[in-house]
Amino acid sequence: MAVLIQVRDAHKRYGDQILLDGAELSLVDDVKVGFIGRNGAGKSTLLRALLGNEELEKGEVIHHPSLRIGYLRQHDPFNAGESALDFLMRDSGEPDWRCGEVAGQFELKGAYLEGPVKELSGGWQTRVKLAALLLHDPNLLMLDEPTNFLDLRTQILLEHFLRSFKQAALIVSHDRAFLKATCSQTLELSRGKLTMYPGKIDGFLEYREERREHDRRVNSTVQAKQKQLQRFIEKNRASAATASQARSKAKQLEKLQTTEIEVDEPTVYIRPPRVEPRSGTVLRCENLAIGYPASKEGDAVTIADNINFELEHGQRVAIVGDNGQGKTTLLRTIVHSLDPVDGLMKWGYGVEVGTYAQHVYTSLDEKQTVIENLEYNSMAGTTRQELLAMAGALLFRDEHINKKVKVLSGGERARLCMAGLLLGTANVLVLDEPGNHLDVETVEALAEAMDLYKGTVIFTSHDRHFVGRVATRVIEVRDGTAKTYFGDYDSYLKTVEDEIDEGERQRGKVPPPAAAEAPKAKGEVHRERGKDGRKAEKELKNLEKKIAKLDDEKKELSKKMLTETNPEKAMKQHEEIEKLNAELAECEEKWLELSDFS
What is the reported pTM? Predict the structure, then answer.
């Protein structure tokens, strides 16, 4: 087991902030490490130091002579007009057959491989960058937030790649599900120190909380003993008869020390908006078509149509699907940022919608300070302490609350928008990627807040742990429409995993086709829907009604049979239930066929 990188006594600070304070680290050649820490703790700084792009004030970084680092680039390394294959050959110096072979691991083929790489979506471009990494034959991968803005399928492909990668990896991520699936050890940067835990992130977080709880209990016991000794000393030190005992107790008191509980910041707590629970329909969409209006350059663009669903107050609805299918377009349409192309969309009575999305947080009033913005957006009666607590939870502390909006970064504006939203009175929250720009602890606190929230949540997120914690209903945007997925989020994940596994099995059996369908241009979805598709949609709805009716009949008969005392009648009811089961199975099989078709 070779040590690929060793860090000794590393020190680094920016201004008054200490990032590394005697940090020590050893990365060995066969371990994948998940790297976590609060935002601003110094994770990216350490990565730059490991790469040799950042100098330490003190200490050293030692590279093994055989070290070959593969670093996932965040910037755009592509030349204008070049294809993914051209880029891979230029970047690696490998022949086209070898580049094509590695690209196939990431489903890059046909027009995706041979068409202009700059026209691919961000997720597909990330696949190209990953193929480029592999072509350099690294023995240590360094990935900095690799799942940001990747759709679910690309995340799962990346997981499969990392699990099959036999060398070492250091992965910075706030996505717990991703780290759990890929990393066997966990590294935390906290208060300038590095802690390596020989287990997955869930085990580390439990261990860390148990350790802190133990320290709290010990401190409580020590403090009680300190008070007891202090009272004895004060009572007896003035008396000649007991002065020696008092001195002895004073020595004991000096030896009693509490343990410093190592937390970078106070535990994150995010309170949800305080609203009254409501019942009934909150949003109805009928034959809705979404997209973008006509421009001078061309006609209106329809992204998806024939969208029909009804949401109830109190639901937490995850909008899922691959990038480019229209998730954000759907969210922007339901909050009236975009007009519907066609169809009906109607909010229920008494609805107040709060929105978290890029088009909102990039248009904040730049003249306000952080605290002024929060005061403006918070509900009446919110105390200054509550404002400061929310600001602190979203990483605005001390002098940062007086910063002007105009000097905030994109990530800071996003967090400010989130803080203002959570201090408001909205009984419906529409959130587009709420976990971006937040660390592991803050994402978890946000999930807990959404659990406690009495209103309705409609959201998109690439963070599977967050979606699994929050979602009570799943709507999938796919193949030019949006429909309710009949199952929970875990079953949806299983479906996507199975599709990817089947694709990988087929790719292993047969050679890839010479050409594939051209990639979809940004903002467009290419669809072919004929009369047969419309007919299938109609039949699908009728089948859903029939399945619900048959299921109700079956439940009613089952109840009767449980209370029936006449054996002959019970047997007859059992036979009727069997008939219903057979009819239900037939309808469900037909429903599955039509779902695939539509």
Answer: 0.65
